[in-house]
Amino acid sequence: MTASVPRPRDVLFVLPPDFSAPEAHLVFRFPPLGPAVVAASIRSLGLVGRAVDLALDLFKAPLDLEVAPLVAPTLVERHLAGEHDARIDAVMDRIFERLDEPGRGADLVAVSIDRGSQVPFVAVLTCEMKRRWGKRIIVGGVAVEHLHALLEKSGAIGADIVTKASTPAQIRRAFAALLDLPEHRRGGPLEPNTEIVELVRGGMRKAPSAADWPTPDFSIYDLDPYRRDVVGVDGAAYPAYRGELGASLVLPYFFSFECQFSCAFCQTGGTQEHKPIDLVVRELAELSERWQTRAFLFFDTQVNLLAADLSRALLAARLDLRWSDSYRVRPSEPGDLELMARAGCAGLTIGVESASARVLKAMVKGHRPEQATQMILEAHRHEIMVRVNLLSCFPGETREELAETRDWVRQNAFAIDDLAPSSFYLTADSPIGRKPERYGIRVRGPRSLEGETRFRKSPDSLMYDEMGGLTWEERAPMLEASEGMLRSAWLEGRASLDGLGGFSPSAMLGLRSHFATKAEIYAFLGRCRGGAPRLEEEARAPETSAEVLPSILRSSLPKLLAPRWADAAMARAFAAAFRAAAPSLAARLREGDTAHVVLWPDGRFLFFRGAVRRGSDDRARSFHVEEPLGAPPPEEITQGSSFEVLTFRLDPRRPRVVP
């Protein structure tokens, strides 16, 4: 007699909407990483999952009802306590028209919170789930202590377990506790003992071991709705776009845990752990092949300490991925950014925070303003799309110091593809919150968040006075205004780009999957936004595509050529040089090799390995030839004459065949 195998239990993962979120947060939404990690972690318990992304569903098919009551904590609290609001009931009826079919067939329900502003809605949602379905319900994510408090205070019956579990072992313990509860349980929220937190250095968290983290399980999603045309989703802005790029999928991924740096304002820090790099490459290869994508958005606190090893491993594996991650200005070794670019780094979010040396020192950022400038320009030169984080109104920052940052943004805006200004907010679990007197502030109490700040700031934000400086009443009006001032300076600095930019990391990845250079991206989008009929020869996107340059080469264009590179005559001149030298280049360059070509106005050209010196305006000033390549070099090389330099590399994605 054979033993029966227990039937796998079905888990419905529900991803709630955030009615405080700006539309841009949903336009480029990717399949959320948290539930995919949870699903992989609980597989050993015999649990299989399916996800319903209410946020994406309601974005694609909005409700024709007012949702404001669901983001009003006082109204929600009264509703939960028994004073039913008809407007809330009407919205929930419509939402359950979309949830009932998958929900009634599930054994367990798991709800994921990724923003504190979702708490009021999730409280109502879980209570309705319990009333309608009678299922066991678990809620995890950020700010869950606020959900626990709201349910207990109102006496409402909803989630059975509310947990801060974040590591795979903690997640399994939480789900095991849920399985131990009786079916159709009705009672207040429980929090099982899943938290095993080790502290280091001043109360900061020790990173969990990387050994237990599984490959994210994206099979819980229907991935088709997440495949987006990164230009088409903003069709109103690009009226001449004809769908040339098509839809693409970006998958999130992370391989490091916590951060060993200790910025004064941050809520992480202590130690850092990471998956073995060879395992990271294998997992990326598996995800890429299984889900047919080469674009990955990494969610590491900072990739600085691992970037070089990861890049070398990706190049050795020849995966040809495009990826983006967060990066500190320091530490970074010379050559790291060039190596990362060759390994597929298409975008970086760089924490510059301020252009004031004094403010950076107070923040414990570990870099100087000139180092931030150097890094931004270097990333720009290597075709890495740059998103800059700024933190205005740090305690003690003067108006003059904020103006320094504004001027820096305006001056370097040409190299910054997106700006993310965020005014400072204080939390008790940051270094400055743990020792406020050291940073010259006095805590006043909880801060009230309104509008979009509910989405962007922690629900645990605090008010404070600056000792010998501004009171909260004086500082508060400056917070939002400072963000607007910095963004205006960025737009002013990008006037020559006609307002193009402001790309999300997902959009950056999608664009760089189709274009080798930022110049090509801006030229193409400029044509798409013009709205004017395009000439037949302009319909190719971009002009420097494989129809113009030999397909064996992938170009990487210096920035200040961008306006002229869109000119067909300049494109044809470079293309003619490549065609003349292609046989020799194919024989003498290895896949992935980087080289340069100089083009003189009279049509002479020179291919070479070596170095190019550029001025502060990024224009080539001189070059040093270590080894001539391709066709024979000109008889005379006069560096004092006018010339243009193009940097390129042999495309590792294509066979070694000369067109």
Describe this structure in words.
The chain has 659 residues and is an alpha/beta fold. 35% of the residues lie in helices and 19% in strands. It has 21 helices and 22 strands. It has a 6-stranded parallel beta sheet with strand order 8-11-12-13-14-15, with helices on both faces. It has a 5-stranded parallel beta sheet with strand order 2-1-3-4-5, sandwiched between helices. α11 links the parallel β12 and β13. α4 packs parallel to α6 and α9 crosses α10. The radius of gyration is 27 Å and the shape is globular. The termini are far apart. The relative contact order is 0.07. The N terminus and C terminus are likely disordered.
* SS strand fraction: 15-25%
> What is the CA-CA span between the terminal residues?
67 Å
Number of helices: 21
Structural category: alpha/beta
Main sheet strand line-up:
8-11-12-13-14-15
Principal-axis shape: globular
State the helical fraction: 25-40%
Largest sheet: 6 strands, parallel
The number of E-state strands comes to 22
Overall average pLDDT = 83
Q: Radius of gyration, Cα only, in angstroms?
A: 27 Å
Low-pLDDT ranges: 1-5, 196-204, 531-568, 652-659
